[in-house]
Amino acid sequence: MPKITKRAVAALKPKDTSYFVWDSLVVGFAVRVMPSGTKTFQVQYRKGARTRRASLGRFGVVSVEQARDQAREMLGQVAGGSDPVEQIALERIAPTVSDLCDRFLDVHVAVHVKPSTAKDYSSTIRRMIRPALGMFKVTDVLRKDIANLHYRHRDTPIQANRMLSVLSKMFNLAELWGLRPDGTNPCRHVPKYKENKLERYLTAAEIQHLGQVLKRCEDDGSETPHVIAAFRLLLLTGCRLGEIQTAKWEYVTERGLELPDSKVGKRCVPLPAAARAVLDGLPRTAGNPFIIEGKLPDTHITDMQRPWRRIRELAGLEDVRIHDLRHTYASIAVSGGMPIQMVGRLLGHTQLQTTLRYAHLADDPVRAAAEENSTAIFASLGASKPKNHLRVIK
After folding, report:
1. What's the 3-state SS for 144-164?
2. Model confidence band, residue 223 (pLDDT cutoffs 50, 70, 90)
3. What is the CA radius of gyration of the chain?
4. 149 in a domain, yes or no?
5. Which of 42, 65, 92 is the last residue of a domain?
6. Single pTM value for the model
7. DNA-binding among the record's keywords (predicted)?
8. What pairing do the DSSP bridges indicate for beta strands 257-262 and 50-58?
């Protein structure tokens, strides 16, 4: 076997079939001559019972020295236990982030996620993830790529954070499916933006005024009895809109409203006497299983936003969202001294952290009790009424 040199390769002539000329300096390094006259550098080695071979480039494009150095490097990897040719083959067929998105939606989201959440995931992937990362190989995505994409959406921090959560879940599954090594999720340590969530609580006066508007709409027929009942039930139970909107009469039992498949799975919502009175007053259409009936036969109301906009405008509550009725239910419970854990159970929270957003409201009855107690003690001391220490700044 001669040493492969530029002059020796240039002198090689094509034959009827391809043939190899092996290097005497690096065992496994060769030049292959095709019948067409094309000459390519090759590296070959054995891995177990298999013979591996890879092209290192065409003669004239890659120099002999460059090809020999590359062959040495690959053969060194083989000596260390690696299989570089197999790795190259895997990289060629490695899935892209777009492929991962498809598998995530088909295998995980379609099976494990509620339809409303699945819709949000699909939208996030379509609008934010595929355009930016779709062509990347799953194995090539780095933390800086995720951080840059997250930063690009900094003007919409809530959406940016939701996107980061979806990406993190996707790359966790990529590890589970063997598409990335364990512990390489590129979303790790990318900090989320602070979210200034607006939580609106109705005051007692606002609740009373809303009740009057609901009664007026009920009396004059401007809204259907089922629309009116839906908003009353939301305030009286603290349920999510979808839970009331899709509830069926068969869910109503002595225990309460037994939801077979809520956002957090199966749960039973207590139905106090006031809520049951609302249910008892509702007209029912034979054959329609839903409590909040829609206009079409055997359906529930699908759009509660438009009637809510009409009602809140009449009540002067334009800044109140439907979900704020749930916040109001929770705020009244916490302010009334109910333990935060019990409030979480009433709301169907699976994590205490979710309920702790209302924890500061528990200070109101404590402050009131402290004020009442100190006033009584102060009076017993025989001192004059305490002065108001608040300064008026003009």
Report:
1. HHHHHHHHHCCCCHHHHHHHH
2. very high
3. 35
4. yes
5. 92
6. 0.58
7. yes
8. unpaired
Question: What does the alpha-carbon distance between residue 232 and residue 220 come to, in Å, rounded to a whole number?
Answer: 17
Asked whether the beta carbons of 174 and 181 are under 8 A apart, the reply is no
Angle between helices 204-220 and 305-314 (to 10 degrees): 110
The residue range of the domain holding 143 is: 97-176
What stretch of H or E contains 320?
none
Q: Is the pLDDT of residue 262 over 80?
A: no
Which is nearest to 42 in space by CA: 7, 67, 14, 72? Answer: 67
The whole-chain average pLDDT of the chain stands at 87
Structure tokens, 171: 């790359």
Residue 223 contacts residue 344 (beta carbons within 8 Å): no
CATH code for position 301: 1.10.443.10
- Helices 225-237 and 204-220: angle between axes, nearest 10 degrees: 160
Write out 87-139 in H/E/C secondary structure. HHHHHHHCCEHHHHHHHHHHHHHHHHCCHHHHHHHHHHHHHHHHHHHCCCEHH
pLDDT, tens digit (0-9, with 9 covering 90-100), for 333-392: 877 777 778 877 778 776 766 666 666 665 565 566 666 666 666 666 765 555 554 444
CA distance 229 to 349: 24
> What is the DSSP code string of 332-366?
HHHHTT--HHHHHHHHT-SSHHHHGGGGGGGHHHH
Looking at the structure, do residues 291 and 357 belong to the same domain, yes or no?
yes
- Is the Cβ–Cβ distance between 47 and 65 less than 8 Å? no
Specify the CATH number for the domain of residue 112.
1.10.150
Instruction: Verify that 230 and 274 share a domain, yes or no.
Output: yes
H or E stretch at 375? helix 363-380
CB-based burial, 121-160: b 16+ in 10 Å, e otherwise: beebbeebbbebbeeeebeebeeebbbebbeebeeeeebb
- What letter represents residue 245's amino acid? Q
Q: Containing H/E element for 290?
A: none
Lowest mean pLDDT among 190-199, 231-240, 377-386: 377-386
Quote the number of domains for the chain: 3
Nearest alpha-carbon partner for 231 in 280, 314, 292? 292
Asked whether the predicted pLDDT for residue 250 surpasses 70, the reply is: yes
